[in-house]
Amino acid sequence: MDGFRRHRRWRAHANLRRLVREHAWQVDDLVYPVFVREGLNGKEEIAAMPGVYHFGLDAFRREVAELAELGIPAIILFGIPADKDEWSTSAYREDGIVQQAVRAAKAEHPDLVVMTDVCLCQYNPAGHCGVVRDGKIVNDESLTLLAKTAVSHAQAGADVVAPSDMMDGRVAAIRQALDAHGWTDVAILSYAVKYASAFYGPFREAAHSAPAFGDRRSYQMDPANAREALREAASDVEEGADALMVKPGLPYLDVLRSLREAFPLPLAAYHVSAEYSMVKAAAEKGWIDERSVVEETLLAFKRAGADFILTYHAKEAAKWVKASSWR
Ligand code: PBG
């Protein structure tokens, strides 16, 4: 008797560890964010996000074929329009870049789940997620435009619309509009808990969506708040959300866990742009082993309670899995 427990017995070799492993990630859990840019020929790499590109429509078609081949179940589309105006009209035009991309993806790969980000910030010169009036982001007028945008995405064939604007009441407005147009089967993945985060820096450069004045703190959540996340999520559930999301990822695993415990809905984590950029930068310097860091990160999201994960690493993760039989 040595008077202590021998936890190491289950760690002694690989097959013992396999037996008692509690969590795992798989390609089934991954959603790949894709940027489509109106008027672009070919593709253009995003400086702060090596390996992530803006795609013109043709290059996008080729990318989608590759993703489908890799077995990635879903993409989420972000549009970069050629024109911006006060009413964000490019967000809900029938021939807007996202609408065209949805049609192109669905025409060739009807099984691929196509999600769309529903927001206005890429589409108006103020770079805010809602309508701007007298320097303020006005809530209720924004709802009409967000709902129009979601309906136009559904019309193009989107399976899931994902509002990321953080206006109050958007889930209800979008649900009502979708149903009124007959899109009762289109699901809403709500960015229910989206923090005003510095971790979106590279995305804003990528999406040309940095605010022209002020910041997003009057609508995105204060990183200091955790209980508020439960109130935000509860409203979205009441309003008809079909799935909830927490964003950013690793710095908010506590929030992810608390939503997992409070709501039985499917739950997503968004592993955001700066999280990707930091991994890439450190890996380039040879300071970390990229694959190990990414795999551990994906596992952490699963352990904290995510059903699926939006990540810019999805494509390379799928390639790693393809190249090895078991981990
Ligand atoms: C649009 C939107 C943003 C992200 C997703 N949708 C930027 C923002 O809110 O500023 C961030 C994604 C990322 O950083 O990877 N509102």
Strand order across the largest sheet = 1-4-5-8-9-10-11-12
Integer average pLDDT = 97
| Architecture per CATH nomenclature, i.e. the level-2 architecture | Alpha-Beta Barrel
Helices, by number, come to: 11
CATH fold type: TIM Barrel
CATH class category: Alpha Beta
Radius of gyration: 20 Å
Cα shape: globular
Unreliable residue runs: none
Secondary-structure element order, N to C: HEEEHEHEEEHEHEHHEHEHHEH
State the share of residues found in helices, binned by percent: 25-40%
Binding site for 5-aminolevulinate 1: 204, 216
Protein name: Delta-aminolevulinic acid dehydratase
Keywords: Heme biosynthesis, Lyase, Magnesium, Metal-binding, Porphyrin biosynthesis, Zinc
EC number: 4.2.1.24
General description of the model:
The structure is a single chain. By secondary structure, the protein is α/β, with parallel strands linked by helices. It has one domain (22-323): Alpha-Beta Barrel (TIM Barrel). It contains eleven helices and twelve strands. It has helices at residues 14-20, 57-69, 97-108, 139-156, 170-180, 201-207, 227-239, 253-262, 273-284, 290-304, 314-323; strands at 30-37, 43-46, 49-55, 74-80, 113-118, 131-133, 136-138, 160-163, 187-194, 243-247, 267-271, 308-311. An eight-stranded parallel β-barrel has the order 1-4-5-8-9-10-11-12, surrounded by seven helices. Strands 6-7 form a two-stranded antiparallel ribbon. The longest helix has 18 residues, at 139-156. The radius of gyration is 20 Å and the shape is globular. It starts with 13 loop residues before the first helix and ends with a helix. The mean pLDDT is 97. Ligand PBG is lined by residues 117, 119, 121, 129, 164, 200, 203-204, 216, 272-273.
